[in-house]
Structure formats: structure tokens, C-alpha cells
């Protein structure tokens, strides 16, 4: 096939009124073109008649007879503009191919502007009506123009980022590349432009957007229903162009999460995560109460179902309203136990996908390198530990999204828009987990400080943009979060801080393996952690060694030095206020002392600072993997180095691979609650009092309440609330004389003396709790508890539905 300089493709359908002058104008202009050598340019003009019903084909045929450089291609029926352009492009011979509409809304003379951009290295130059330099002589109808702008935004968001006008019918392409693109295209309708530009974008071929002259021409073939078809085409472009690896990696993350929680999914209502302590019951209660508040249009920030009559400030507890409220329909339809399993499984997978997306977009070229880093960020030992019982620390899919928006602010392209979105993202994360956000901000501050030291020139350049964007974000987030945060810190049952004591990591915890890691030893992990839900370090010594090696090997990059500093500083912070010296009784002052007394930080468990290390380590692993995957091997020695690198990754990561969570059979709900017998013993607005009262260590009543459809309230419970005049945060209700007395019998098995004072305090507490009935589940020291309550009430209980029941309504 003879090669020529330029092909012009004009799709035409029922264009008898416009085609002749268009062909004359194009031929006249093409006659003036020159090749780079100075000789007249060689060209061809292809008209594709898309099944016209008028004289369009006759006009084109007459032009072809007059000039052999004009060609007519015909389709037997109208197949759509995309099909017509594809037919013409695939038949083209030009080193460059211009596609233009038959109405010449953009004059053919604008070709010179597009050609310059290809001379500069672009693979495609698209005429644009949306750039500051665009010149619009005649505008479309306002509604059509609005629909076009909305469509352009959708296309830019879903298919072709960075191009503001993909639908202008005047585009110049590199011939070989555009023929390759159209050979792979499938759309026959008006959305073909987006499909082709999406292909160029995915191949990494540069697309230049060029402002041009444009004037609306009457007689448009685009009908209103075409916009609906374009939406469907856009979905096909978005998902049809997804490489298999891009689908396989999220599917792999979901599979891993499902395997980890397989025991829970085997019977969501009948199985319990063995290492979750009381937390699974608490979280299911949170989900159930949020759904009930939504269903009855009640305040989602408060409930009186626990800690009656004072209630619980849900905003001051980690109730994850950002998920519990949107998932209310799931909870109402399938139950809180299904929501619990769904949040854990989907949350871990979504967190892995979010980090994978960020790494692929910002840090590495290899999709599998991004998958490795993203998978580590979601399934690292600290994340798996919190996956037992703390979804607010395991479900962190918003953190990578926030990081990406911060990086966009540093680029300074659209500060206002990016700042607004950052403000919305931060607000939403507040409703997912404030402590996780605090740790993320701490890590980002450490990284920013280190990067500024490593590359001060860059820091000075991006600081003004970043600060402006943060200001915009604050203007958005503060008004949105003001009322919920005011309720959290100043509302009913609010508190100042939760005092956990000094619970920093032992230095050896950074080098050992977690309980749920493949190489983990539960006894060793237990000796170095608060409990199995707080194994906040446990990266294992091979991974620590590899991370140091990667940082040293890639230290020339400022971002690597900043990542290494962030991980090291966070690990040091996690050791707490007093760092024990292994093998001795001595301690050293820890850097956590610098923040221990600061607002909000005073409530943080220090060992959780080690969770900040997860993201820097994951990114460093991805960078190392990407370097190994991209390296060209030129010698046997280089092949050996690559093999050694992969082996080091395997040795470091295999021991910390997570193992499935262990589940146990759940304690059955007594028939008194399950079959609704309780309704005959608790009046509306009154309470049911379990013996002993529910507490953080005894949450059976929370499960009963959920099973009863939240039909009754009870005193006590498992939540964070205020205690004392300083409103210090404590776990559970403020003790009362009767609750202390009953808890003592439960713990010791000894029946105390019951005299007039105890009975007066008992009656006072019953009135305070608005109690209608007391119930005792046969358990530890049940006989002693039964005797104690019998003496307090002066009456024998009845055995109903598996429980001992004392009706105390009216005294």
C-alpha cells in the first residue's frame, strides 16, 4: 500500500445539502499543503457514506470521478458515526489521519494548529471548544450545550482524564496508532471518540488538546435519546477496556478477605470470632442501633438502649456511622451479624484495592508491584490483628484517597476543587474512624517533614499550593463536622479522654510474629501485647531487615528517605513513654512523651502508632518489586541479583502471611428473649436488668437486645462514657451500689450481708434504672446470685424461658 502524508476521513449520513461545499473547501485547502521536504503534500480524502437515504453518495461519487484522490466508501445500511469513521480510518494510508465532520463546524484551516502538536511529539491532537483559547462563533442551544458539558465531565472522569472536550468533530492522529486503535474499537455510535482516546490514554500515547474555532451548524443528527445510549457506551468503555490484571487483582483481594473470614461466613448468626473478646457483640449492637435509628428517623448520634436511663453518645464511641448508616438497609433486611461480616470482609478488600490504586497511579508502573504493596497495606499483621474486632482500624479505604488528593494539591492544578474534595473525604473519614485519621495525619506530617528536609526546593515550591488547598478543605470540613464533633465532645454522655495507661510496644514486638501470622507463636505474641486485637507491630525480623535494605538501596530518591524516616519514627513513637531495655529492668524515656499530654493524643493507645509503619513499608516493598520487574537483564550477575531480590521478598513476606480467623459457636439466646416472652415483663419506657449488669467483660445482654429487635433497654453495658466531675472517659457505666454488689458476687461467689441499707440502695437503683424485671442466666456462681437477688427483692424468682425472672414493677 502506497504511503501518503495525510488522510482526511469524513463520515456522512444524509448530508446532500452540506457535503459538496465541504468537499470543495477541504480539497482547496489540501492543495496548499506542503510536506516537510517542501514538496506538495500527498493526500487522500475518504468519504464514508453511512447508508444515506438522499443524494449524499452521488455527490461524493461525482467528486471521486473528478479527483482520484477522493474515495467513496459505502455501507449498505446506517450503522452509526463510529462505524463510518472506523471504516474510513482502517482504509486510510496516511502517515497522519484527520477525522472531521461533514458540516465543517471547525474550519479545515485549523488543521495547521493540530499538526504543530503532532510535530512536537503528540500522538493525537483533538480540537477543543472548552479551552480558554477556543473561539465559539455560533453557540448551540443552551440545553444541548449543558448536556454536552455534563457528558464531557462524565467522559473525563470515567474514560479520558485531562481532556475537557472529547466530542469536537475535528481530530488529527498519528496514522499507524489510530489504525491500531480503531482495529480494537467496538462502538458504532456517537461515543466512539471517547473509546479511541481511552485507548490512546491506556497505551501511554500523548494526547494534546488544542483550542480551535467552532460554529454550531443546524441539522445535527444527535437526538435526545442518544445521550442515554452514550451513558451505556461510556460504561462499556470503562469496563470493557479494563485489562484482566486490573480485575484479577481486586478479585484476589476479595478472595483473600473471604478466606480469612470463611469461618464467620459459614454461619454469620451462629459463629463468633474467637479472639474478638466482647467486641463482636458490641459492634453488631452498634450496627443494629444505627439501622434502628435510621428506620425510625431518630438522632443517629445517641441512643438510650444501653446505660439506661443516661444513654450512650454514639458519636463519642467508635460506631462507624459512615458505614453503619449507609448499610442500614442490609442490617434491617439480613441482620447486624451479616453487616458485621460484610464490613470486615469488604472493608479489608476495599482497603487493599484503594492502596493498590494509589500505588499504581502514583508510585509504580507494574500492576503486580502495586498489588503487592496494596495487599501488604491491608493484610499486614497490625491490620489483621485489628481485623479480629476493630473495623475502625481495619477498614481504611479512605486513607489512600485522602493521600492522593493531598498529592494533587501539591501539583496545584485545581486547588479549589481538590480542596473541596479533600474536605469531603476528611469529613467522611471522621465518621469511619477518628483515631485512624489521627494516626494517618501523624504519619503524613512525619513524611512531609522528612521530604522537606530531603528535597527543600520541592518543599518550597509545593508548600503554598498545599496550604491553600488545606485551607479550602478546612472551610468545607469544619462546618460539616462541627455539629457531630460538638455532640461528641460537649453533648450528652460526652467525655474528655480515655485513660489507657502506658501501653507502648516492647521493642521485641517489632521483630516477632503475630498470632495470626503464618510464623506466629501465640504465647510469644501474648507476652508482648495487650491482647490479640492489639498486636500493633509484629512485622517479623526478616521484613524489618528487608525494609532497611530497600531504604539503603534506593536512598538516592528523596521519597524513599522520607518513607524510611516515617516508618522508623512511627516505630519509635509506638514504644511509648518509657522504652524497656530488653534483658534488663531499666527503661529509657520515649518520644511519645512529647505528645502524651496533647488533646486527643492522650486517648490514643501508644502501641497503635506502629500502624503508621504499615503504609511506608508497603510502598517501599512496591518500589522494590517494581524495580525488580522493570530491570533489564544484561548479564548472568544481574539475573542472580534479581533472583536474590525475589527470594528476599519471599523470605520476608511468607512468615507474615495471615491465617484464617478462628471462630467458635455462639452462645444461644435464652428463649425468654428469643420467643418474645420478655414483652410480658417489660413495659414501654421501662428496662430489663440482667444480673449481674452488662459490662465490657459481659456483653451477652447486648446480643439479647439485638435478637429482641431492640425492644427493651437495660442499664450498664459496653461503651465509652464519662466518670467523675472531670468527665474522664471510662469503659462501661458508672458503678452504682447494686451493680457493684452483684458484680462482687459474680466474681467471688460470696453472698454478702443483706440488710436494710442494701435493700434501700437496691430500691433506689431500681427506680433510677426504671426497672420492670431482673433476669439471671444460669452461669458462674448462679446460685449465689439467685440467693442474693432473692434476699434483695424479698421474693422468689420464676423460671421462664431458661432464665430466673424477678418482676419488680412498682417496687
From TrEMBL:
Database matches in InterPro entries: DPG_synthase (IPR035518), Glyco_trans_2-like (IPR001173), Nucleotide-diphossugar_trans (IPR029044)
The protein's annotated pathway: Protein modification; protein glycosylation
Domain Glycosyltransferase 2-like: start-end pairs: 7-168
Enzyme class: transferase
Membrane-topology annotation of the record: Single-pass membrane protein
A Pfam family annotated for this UniProt entry: Glycos_transf_2
Enzymatic reactions: a di-trans,poly-cis-dolichyl phosphate + UDP-alpha-D-glucose = a di-trans,poly-cis-dolichyl beta-D-glucosyl phosphate + UDP
Gene Ontology BP terms: protein N-linked glycosylation
Keyword Transmembrane: yes
Location of the protein in the cell: Endoplasmic reticulum membrane
Presence of keyword Kinase: no
Spans through the membrane: 247-266, 338-359, 366-384, 437-454, 466-487, 538-555, 562-580, 600-623, 643-661
Main location, first listed in the record: endoplasmic reticulum
Any one GO MF annotation of this record: dolichyl-phosphate beta-glucosyltransferase activity
Key words, A-Z: Endoplasmic reticulum, Glycosyltransferase, Membrane, Signal-anchor, Transferase, Transmembrane, Transmembrane helix
Gene3D superfamilies: Spore Coat Polysaccharide Biosynthesis Protein SpsA, Chain A
Enzyme Commission number(s) from the entry: 2.4.1.117
Family note: Belongs to the glycosyltransferase 2 family.
Protein name: dolichyl-phosphate beta-glucosyltransferase
Organism, as annotated: Streptomyces albireticuli
